[in-house]
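Check this.
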Amino acid sequence: MSTPPEQTPAPEPRKPADWEPLIRAGGVVVSILAALISGFLEINLSTLRSGDLVTIWRGDAIGSGGGPLLGLSILLAGGLNWAIAWFAVTTTRRRWALAPPWALWTLLMLGAAGVRTDEGDYLLGGENWVALVMILVGSLTYAIFSYRLILKRSLP
C-alpha cells in the first residue's frame, strides 16, 4: 500500500507592498521638477524672435536676432502647465497636489520679473509682451484646471 504524501501547509500569500505613499510623493516631486524646468524654459524662450531661427544655428543667444517676438513660450506655458497639473493630480489622486507646482511656477515667474541681471536688465521685462502674457496664461492654466476639478467633484 502506498502511504499518502506528507501534507505541508500552503504558504500564506504575500501581502503586496503598499506603494501608494511612495507613488504620491514621487508624483509631487516629479511635478515640482517639471514646473521648475518648464518655467526656466519659458523664461528663456520669452525673448525668442523670428530672426533667432537663423541666428541660433550660428551660436548666437536667444533674442539676438531681429524681427517680432514669437509667442512660443505662451503656448508652452499653457500646454506644459496643463500637463503638469494633470500629472500631479492623476499620480497622487489628491487635489492638493496641484498646489506645489503651481506655487513654484508662479514664484519663479514673479522672481524673474523682479530680478535684474548684472547689466541692469530684468529677466522678464515690462516691455516684453510675450513674457507678460506668458505669466497670465500660465497662471490661468493652473487656475482653470483647479476650477474644473472643483466643479467635476471627481479626479481625472
Observations:
- The two ends are 65 Å apart (CA to CA).
- The longest helix spans residues 20-45.
